[in-house]
């Protein structure tokens, strides 16, 4: 069977940017791209975007709908639910489709691929670096009328993804140099009553609500400690090679989804501002070890599913490690 839209050259997305501080950029303001939001539980639309971003990393070839349905079945998503997710993602501008005979294929649109890869890159890089802080704060202030609740929600979501937190309802702060991305958010969403500035805080002042009050460090510490406690056993089993097949793929996607909350709730807060024995480094090490160890068996299962309907595409599947390097599973595509 010949697969559609095999692309190479300039249409091929880069494998991974150089490792450094996570790129804190707003999701491109393209109205044709509407990625599914992070929610509790297994959401078929979100699962599809994570699977494509993780195992079909940077590739533009379309995949058979039958293979995508089979992959979602490993997450207990019904055939009806899987096909509905494909249809909805297409309507949202996340997926595009093509046909060969009676077979339908799907792949990320060019715009969605950029957003998905950027998000996955940031997730993998989060917590890996501990750069010295320059003492500067980025402040973003805005005002919106009550009847623009959808715009307000979009502003808040995108500012939080940039690493901001609300000090007050209309004043958000970040210890990172993200002034230009914040200005782009306001411009793209048409928020005219807004301003972004960079400032320092005089440590001698006794402010009733200093910038760090925007983060609940007690809750954040508890979240990190819960992540470590919940996934310690998974790491041990993964390192011992005890997880394979669908279980490895489901566990890896679940781990990535669990890690997803931290870049928004903790913009790599400078160590200078944090209590001693902060658990982020330990959580990051656990994530990196587990995510990397689950990569080979998870990718092997992804390839096996794909080989059932598109054996020519199966060898192209790969997995990414937390340090940004790529890995492939050895051997011919499973039959």
TrEMBL record:
Superkingdom to which the source organism belongs: Bacteria
Secretion signal span: none
Domain spans labelled Transcriptional repressor PaaX-like C-terminal: 215-303
Disordered: annotated segments: 1-41, 315-335
Domain Transcriptional repressor PaaX-like N-terminal: 48-111
InterPro entries on file: PaaX-like_central (IPR048846), PaaX-like_N (IPR012906), PaaX_C (IPR013225), WH-like_DNA-bd_sf (IPR036388)
GO biological process, one term: DNA-templated transcription
Stretches assigned to the Transcriptional repressor PaaX-like central Cas2-like domain: 131-201
Protein name: PaaX family transcriptional regulator
Organism per entry: Frankia nepalensis
